[in-house]
Design brief:
OB fold (Dihydrolipoamide Acetyltransferase, E2P); mainly beta; 609 residues; eight-stranded antiparallel beta sheet
């Protein structure tokens, strides 16, 4: 060990000496310097488990720009543990995070370190377990690391999330990847995709890219994870499908309805071993979960050879009707299908007519006075859960509204304008007065409208914002400003937080500098991050504050979690306040217990013009 430490000190001293002398050439190629880049690499390994890269191999690949996003295996010996910061070592094993930063080097024939070291940034222990003790890894340990190589700034490293597959005499044999069957089908009704084929299809689309069309997928039900509470509340199911004989390769039928798009009435309607064909849009969720797009957008076309049968229970959505013309307007179900077919954030090429019943009008008097436009939700009669948002629309003949009472809950309306599936989850008009109400209860001439009773004066408080909920999507709207075209997103599940992390006072920055901060607020329970939620759970009276770098915030969209039939979108009494560049959302509740958690997975911020 003394000999080893002496060698380590010698290497460290050599690096220090070289870096202190400007006229001494760098001991290895400088990133980005074409003259120093090797034109050809001679590798001793191939990055596989059977033939891992050496540290020199890994450094050469990174500096030559030949690394990829694929996981590889690297072997070496640990030469130091932790990172020096403010005179102390940090990122050590045994912390609450269970990971550590350490450096590995190649070894010579005598078992001594040689060559430049490679940083393993915040890696986990054997097979991804936590490094629970301070002596979990030590200088001199022989390791094989499984992780992704990258150049972070000017530092070659193994990115966060790597794991040890060998630690001295303890070896974890990697599992063989599951092998799919032979891809079959083209996704049509006459020739459905099998599971292997639909997985290939969504992988080619890319992570989180929804298919532009509905497809048919056939398979055998492997497991039905639906609960009776989900059936009673939503009538949809989630189950996995396989190709016969290939049980480890699955496609998830996520939140699908039954035959003819009707609601299921019992979990037993779909059982393991059933032959099914499903129909709908598909996506590779987060790049690792091939599935239907959910929220009832797909349904079972065939069950054990039966198609078009009567599944008891009410439908969740109306039958799509109309072609978007004045003589034959889209109903809500049809316009939702239309914008979903366009794809997320793709504006329709032409204006269309959409008819429906006003479900909710959240417009404030201050918005009317300042802009004259309205935001209200439309539904098909008798189908309350499927909504289309008339966003920032004007009144008859494109005139400005004069009172929030100009549109009331229960009114039959036709709106006209371009439409979009905002962020892939909010079907709406394009806003900024680009759409208007063509008719209200059959009236198209503003002069024929009945006079509204006087509207009670309300405080002119432009900081008050509107909150609307559509499934698991919570939208916060600043009525005092007009939304622009600049939007920033963040996925809380991709921030590297440890499970059950206390988020009270924790801030995270979005790519443009906007800062999101969670707080206990006046509640008794602190907000926490959970892996199962892939986001942050906010309890009664917890808050989240969103502060930009000076730009006014017009809209915030939160995608939330749903579990066992409950959409965790917060209490009905939650509040939001807008104050220029700052938004504060409170999961307000009368007491500090009970209520509905607000489980935030992703946040999207749209700035004002």
């Amino acid at each position: 060990m003394k000999k080893l430490l002496k060698s380590i000190l010698f290497v460290a001293l050599s690096v220090f000496t070289l870096s202190s002398c400007e006229d001494v050439p760098a001991p290895y190629p400088t990133p980005g310097a074409e003259s120093n880049k090797p034109t050809e690499l001679t590798l001793t390994g191939d990055g596989s488990w059977a033939n891992p890269y050496t540290v020199a191999d890994a450094l050469g690949l990174i500096r030559n720009g030949q690394n990829s996003s694929e996981e590889v295996y690297i072997k070496g010996i640990i030469t130091s543990v932790g990172i020096e910061k403010d005179g102390a070592l940090t990122d050590l094993p045994g912390s609450s995070y269970g990971n550590a930063t350490y450096f590995i080097s190649d070894v010579d024939e005598a078992g001594e370190p040689k060559g430049a070291p490679l940083e393993v940034y915040r890696g986990k222990g054997l097979d991804g377990e936590k490094m629970g003790t301070s002596d979990y890894i030590k200088v001199g340990d022989e390791v094989i690391v499984c992780g992704v190589l990258t150049m972070f700034g000017s530092t070659p490293e193994v990115t966060q999330g790597s794991k040890l597959m060998k630690l001295n005499d303890t070896v974890i044999e990697p599992k063989e990847p599951a092998q799919p069957g032979t891809p079959e089908g083209d996704g049509s009704k006459d020739n459905p995709f099998n599971v292997a084929a639909v997985i290939n299809y969504v992988q080619e689309l890319g992570a989180d890219v929804t298919s532009s069309k509905e497809v048919y997928v056939k398979g055998v039900v492997k497991e039905n994870t639906t609960t009776e509470s989900t059936i009673s509340q939503y009538g949809n199911m989630t189950f996995t499908m396989i190709d016969p004989g290939f049980e480890d390769v699955v496609f998830t039928a996520f939140q699908v309805y039954g035959l003819n798009g009707k609601k299921f009435t019992s979990v037993s309607d779909i059982k393991a071993g059933d032959d099914v064909i499903i129909y709908g849009n598909v996506v590779n969720y987060k790049g690792n979960t091939p599935e239907t797009t959910g929220k009832g957008s797909a349904y079972v076309y065939s069950l054990n050879g039966k198609t078009g049968g009567d599944t008891p229970g009410p439908q969740d959505t109306a039958e799509p009707e109309g072609d978007g013309s004045l003589d034959n307007p889209f109903n809500v179900a049809a316009v939702i299908n239309y914008v979903q077919g366009l794809g997320a954030d793709v504006t329709s090429p032409n204006e269309v007519y959409v008819k429906g019943i006003v479900k909710e009008n959240n417009t404030t008097k201050s918005t009317i006075d300042k802009y004259g436009n309205m935001n209200f939700n439309m539904i098909d009669k008798g189908f309350d859960d499927n909504v289309f948002q008339a966003y920032q629309v004007y009144g008859l003949e494109g005139q400005k509204f004069t009172s929030p009472n100009d549109i009331k809950v229960g009114d039959e309306v036709i709106v006209y304008g371009k439409v979009v599936n905002y962020k892939g989850n909010t079907p709406e008009t394009t806003g900024k007065g680009s759409a208007y109400v063509y008719s209200i209860n059959g009236i198209t001439d503003p002069g024929d409208l009945p006079e509204n009773p006087d509207t009670p004066e309300e405080p002119d408080n432009p900081s008050d914002g509107g909150i609307s909920v559509n499934g698991t999507t919570v939208t916060l709207t600043n009525d005092a400003v007009t939304a622009g075209n600049t939007t920033t997103d963040i996925d809380l599940g991709a921030q590297g937080y440890e499970n059950e992390k206390n988020m009270d006072g924790v801030s995270v920055s979005m790519s443009d500098g906007t800062v999101i901060t969670f707080s206990k607020g006046s509640g008794s329970t602190t907000p926490k991050y959970y892996n199962g939620t892939k986001g942050v759970r906010m309890y009664p009276n917890n808050t989240v504050t969103i502060k930009s770098t000076g730009k006014d915030i017009a809209k915030v969209v939160l995608e939330c979690d749903s579990y066992q039939g409950t959409d965790y979108v917060g209490n009905d009494t939650k509040t939001v306040s807008f104050n220029g560049d700052t938004v504060v959302l409170t999961n307000a509740h009368s007491v500090n217990s009970g209520g509905v958690q607000l489980r935030v997975k992703t946040i999207s911020v749209t700035y004002a013009e």
